[in-house]
Each structure stands twice: as structure tokens, then as C-alpha cells.
């Protein structure tokens, strides 16, 4: 979408000229013949840019500017000023106009100005939306649940939220542990500081330790430069130790020391580094059993489970299923730009009895795929669970077709996620591909390849091609 523009001028000829010029550029253009008419259109339509003459009978350009900005601070307003009215143009800029253009202007001038202002306006909107999403996604109302088990979780989260108490979150894969960890951080006094995550299962011992504590140059093969660890990155904030049950024993000893002494050294270094970090840990293992088996240090276990939150499997709290479905349907509809469709009665019943071995994560992906697949007005059981429904008679062609469609839908979901994830990582580093690649632990070439596949372009500041 290129953007929606409202042209306001009491001269019909100017309205028509600008509409002609800007529609040719691909914008959607509407016109208004007075400030009053323009206010009505602005409040009723979803405009990105208003181009208005400054002097009009009735409400003039400056008054319109004020009304427009009061209605939507992100709406860009460009003033067309008469020759010699620079002083008023400056007033307009002070009052929040995005820019002004003196009469007479030529078409190229106008095109360039509109392109620039429109780009900024769209960027600002995106930014605001992202921000709202980021803040909103950690609000309590993002965690759905009315089952007694979830209510207990909410209560506990609220109780410990304004403390530095270490919390251990337990639950099977996909039950929402990370969501709860986010809620704990974003409701704590540390919310303005970083929430840093480490997956303790993802790497070899060397790499887990370097992830956690950083390393000095030459500490091990491949340590080509000094690197800051996640403990340092989380200073002042929260460190989330995900899959802590998979941490190697030797690393557990180092972690314990870092917790007890609030101090550690980088791998291969001997300068003690002090940090102030709140810890949240999560695991889907039975840690007591691991302690008994000698795979997890008992002393560390007690350090981590000062408060323990247990999230039961979804199958043990089926009363949460309908609310979760509703939330995932509305979210997915917005994300994929599709209308929301209800589940048929059969489909809902099927959801209430499905085993949900993958817990909430499985429910979410099933619902998202079904929304993309559903051809009818309602989502059917077959849309949700595919050909696996025994009662469903299929002809060979349809059966052969279905997996491909499923795969496509899934592919799209994954790609959307990746695009969003990588774009944000790049944005955090001002478009610098090398730095973004380092942060997310990808080779630079692989990241570039992924970006090409997903159609992401980078501004590439100071980032010379390999
Ligand atoms: N109560 C809930 N309300 C809304 N969304 C939820 C809820 N629980 C989980 N989800 C969603 O389900 C997905 C999986 O949740 P999350 O990543 O927190 O699980 P996890 O327990 O950390 O899983 P794993 O052990 O595999 O890492 C996420 O998309 C999350 O937003
Ligand atoms: Mg997780």
C-alpha cells in the first residue's frame, strides 16, 4: 500500500491537478473543498497525509492542522503557502506541520516532497504499532486462562512481580513458560532494563558458558574476539535461563558461584565482573528426579526454586481452550489480514477432547493454519485436524492436495515469523547485517541468504558486502 492522501483546497482546479498528479504516483487520493469538509473526512477515513492550502475561507490551513493533529498525532500535514508567506509557513511547522511548499510549485517538487513525508509517516506508524505490540504482548491480558491452575499462576506472578525473587517456572513444552517469564519481567521494577534470554540446552558446554559469561579473545578455538556474555548484557535487568535442566554440570557450578557471589569471570579471563541481575529459570524436566540421578546440582536447584510456578498441561485445564481459541483466531485474522471465522460446534467439541500433546503452542498453530485453510464460513474439524479425522470421506485427489495446502499455510506462518524476527534484529543494529547476525548467532552469509529469500532489504550502514 502506498498510502492515502487528502487534498484540501477551495480551488477546484488545484484539487483536480493534485489528485491527477498523486494518483499517478500510486496513492489513493481524496479531495475536500474546505477545512470543515476536510475535518469530516479525516475523522471518517484512514489518511496518512493531508495536503492543504493555507489560506481558505472559513477554517484555514492552520486551524485544520490543529484539528487534524488533535485527532491523530501521526497524521502528516503539508501546507501549500502563497508566495511571500514564509513567516506563516514557519508557524505551521512549529504547530506540527510535516513540511510546506510555496506556490507556485512544479510537479517534481511536489512528488519528491510527498514521497519523503509519506515514507516518514508510514515508518512512524509502523514504529508505534510495533511498540504497542511489544508492550501489549507482555501485559497480563495476553496470558489467557480461567482455570484454577492458571489463576494460581496469575496470583503468584502478581505477588512476586515487584521483588527480585528468583522464580523457577515449570511445565511441559508449549505450556507458556516463556510468556509467564516475560510477564514477571515486565511487571517488575526492572521492566525498563533488558530481559535477556539464554537457552541453556542449545549449545556445547563451552558455548553455554561463553553465552552466559562471555569470553576473552583466544579462550578456545573460534574465540576470535572478546565477547560480552548474557549476564553482563542483563545487568540491571532480568536474565531468563530457559531449559535450565539441560545445563551441563560443570556450568551449573559456575552459575551457582555467579548467583552466590554476584560475580563471575569471562571464559579464559580472570578479572571478576560484578552484575546486578534478577534470575528467572524455566524447565520442562523433572528437576527432583534429575537431582536424584546426579544430573542437576541440589544446591543450585534450591537457589533457583525460591518461588516455583507450575503450569499444568493444557489437557488438564480444558476450560482454558475456548478462550485461547478466540484469542488466537482474532490475532491470526489480523496478522494474516483475513476475516475471523467461528469454529463449527463439531470443531469446538473436537478441540475440547483433543490430547494437545504440544499444549498451547500446538493449539495456536492448529488454529492459525485452520483459519488460513478454511474455505467455508466456519472452521470445520477437517480444517483443524486435516485428513486425520476418521469420519471424513475423501477422494484421492483431495487427499493428495491437502498436505500441500497445509504445508503452504505452515510455511507462510513460519516465514512471517522469521521476517518479523530478522527485521527487528536488523533494526536493533541500524541495519548492520554483521552485527545482527552476531546477535542472533547466524553466519552473516546465511543471514543474507535468508534476507534475500524473505525479501528483506537492509539499509546496510557501513556494512561492506562480503
Ligand atoms: N496462557 C496463554 N495465553 C496465550 N498464549 C499462550 C498461553 N500459553 C502459551 N501461549 C502461547 O503459546 C506459545 C508457546 O508458549 P511459550 O513459548 O511460552 O511456551 P514454553 O512453555 O516456553 O515452551 P517450551 O518449553 O517449548 O519452550 C506462544 O506462542 C505463547 O504466546
Ligand atoms: Mg520456552
- Percent of residues in helices comes to 40-55%
> Spatial order of the strands in the main sheet?
2-1-3-4-5
Shape: globular
Radius of gyration from the alpha-carbon trace, in angstroms: 28 Å
Please state the structural category.
alpha/beta
Q: Strand count, sense and closure of the main sheet?
A: 5 strands, parallel
List each distinct ligand once. Answer: adenosine-5'-triphosphate, magnesium ion
Q: How many helical stretches?
A: 19
Quaternary state of the chains: single chain
**Which whole number gives the mean pLDDT?**
85
Strand fraction:
5-15%
What is the strand tally? 14
**pLDDT below 50 for ≥5 consecutive residues: which ranges?**
388-407, 460-466
State the end-to-end distance: 33 Å
Topology:
Blueprint: E1 4-8, H1 12-24, E2 28-32, H2 35-44, E3 49-53, H3 61-71, E4 76-81, H4 86-94, E5 99-102, H5 107-136, H6 148-161, E6 167-171, H7 177-186, E7 195-199, H8 205-213, E8 214-215, E9 227-228, H9 230-233, E10 238-242, H10 249-261, E11 263-264, E12 273-274, E13 278-283, H11 287-292, H12 298-304, E14 307-311, H13 321-336, H14 345-353, H15 359-373, H16 381-385, H17 396-428, H18 433-440, H19 444-454
Parallel strand pairs: 1-2, 1-3, 3-4, 4-5, 6-13, 6-14, 7-10, 10-13
Antiparallel strand pairs: 8-9, 11-12
The chain binds adenosine-5'-triphosphate (ATP) and magnesium ion.
The site of magnesium ion (MG) has 3 residues, from helix 7.
Amino acid at each position: 500500500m502506498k498510502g492515502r492522501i487528502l487534498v484540501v483546497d477551495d480551488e477546484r482546479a488545484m484539487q483536480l491537478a493534485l489528485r491527477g498528479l498523486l494518483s499517478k504516483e500510486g496513492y489513493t487520493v481524496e479531495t475536500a473543498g474546505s477545512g470543515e469538509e476536510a475535518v469530516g473526512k479525516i475523522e471518517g477515513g484512514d489518511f496518512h497525509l493531508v495536503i492543504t492550502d493555507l489560506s481558505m475561507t472559513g477554517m484555514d490551513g492552520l486551524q485544520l492542522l490543529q484539528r487534524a493533529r488533535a485527532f491523530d498525532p501521526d497524521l502528516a500535514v503539508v501546507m501549500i503557502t502563497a508566495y511571500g508567506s514564509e513567516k506563516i509557513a514557519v508557524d505551521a511547522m512549529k504547530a506540527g506541520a510535516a513540511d510546506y511548499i510555496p506556490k507556485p510549485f512544479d510537479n517534481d517538487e511536489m512528488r519528491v516532497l510527498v514521497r519523503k513525508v509519506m515514507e516518514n509517516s508510514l515508518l512512524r506508524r509502523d514504529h508505534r504499532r510495533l511498540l504497542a505490540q511489544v508492550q501489549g504482548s507482555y501485559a497480563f491480558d495476553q496470558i489467557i486462562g480461567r482455570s484454577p491452575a492458571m489463576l494460581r499462576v496469575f496470583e503468584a506472578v502478581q505477588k512476586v512481580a515487584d521483588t527480585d525473587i528468583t522464580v523457577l517456572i515449570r511445565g511441559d513444552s508449549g505450556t507458556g513458560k516463556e510468556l509467564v517469564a516475560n510477564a514477571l519481567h515486565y511487571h517488575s521494577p526492572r521492566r525498563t532494563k533488558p530481559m535477556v534470554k539464554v537457552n541453556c540446552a542449545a549449545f556445547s558446554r563451552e558455548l553455554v558458558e561463553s553465552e552466559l559469561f562471555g569470553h576473552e579473545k583466544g579462550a578456545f578455538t573460534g574465540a576470535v574476539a572478546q565477547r560480552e556474555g548474557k549476564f553482563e548484557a542483563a545487568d540491571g535487568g532480568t536474565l531468563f535461563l530457559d531449559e535450565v535442566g539441560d545445563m551441563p554440570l560443570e556450568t551449573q557450578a559456575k552459575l551457582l558461584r555467579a548467583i552466590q557471589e554476584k560475580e563471575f569471570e569471562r571464559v579464559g579471563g580472570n578479572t571478576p565482573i560484578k552484575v546486578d541481575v534478577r534470575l528467572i529459570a524455566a524447565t520442562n524436566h523433572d528437576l527432583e528426579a534429575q537431582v536424584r540421578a546426579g544430573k542437576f546440582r541440589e544446591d543450585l536447584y534450591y537457589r533457583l526454586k525460591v518461588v516455583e510456578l507450575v503450569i499444568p498441561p493444557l489437557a488438564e485445564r480444558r476450560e482454558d481452550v475456548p478462550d485461547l481459541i478466540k484469542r488466537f483466531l482474532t490475532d491470526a485474522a489480523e496478522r494474516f489480514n483475513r476475516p475471523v471465522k467461528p469454529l463449527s460446534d463439531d470443531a469446538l467439541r473436537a478441540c475440547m477432547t483433543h490430547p494437545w500433546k504440544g499444549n498451547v503452542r500446538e493449539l495456536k498453530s492448529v488454529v492459525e493454519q485452520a483459519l488460513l485453510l478454511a474455505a467455508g464460513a466456519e472452521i470445520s474439524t477437517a480444517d483443524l485436524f486435516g485428513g486425520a479425522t476418521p469420519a471424513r470421506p475423501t477422494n484421492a485427489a483431495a487427499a493428495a492436495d491437502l498436505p500441500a495446502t497445509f504445508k503452504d499455510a505452515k510455511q507462510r506462518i513460519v516465514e512471517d515469523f522469521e521476517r518479523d524476527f530478522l527485521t527487528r534484529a536488523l533494526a536493533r543494529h541500524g541495519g548492520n547485517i554483521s552485527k545482527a547476525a552476531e546477535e542472533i548467532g547466524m553466519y552473516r552469509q546465511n543471514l543474507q541468504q535468508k534476507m534475500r529469500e524473505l525479501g528483506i532489504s537492509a539499509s546496510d550502514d557501513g556494512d561492506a558486502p562480503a
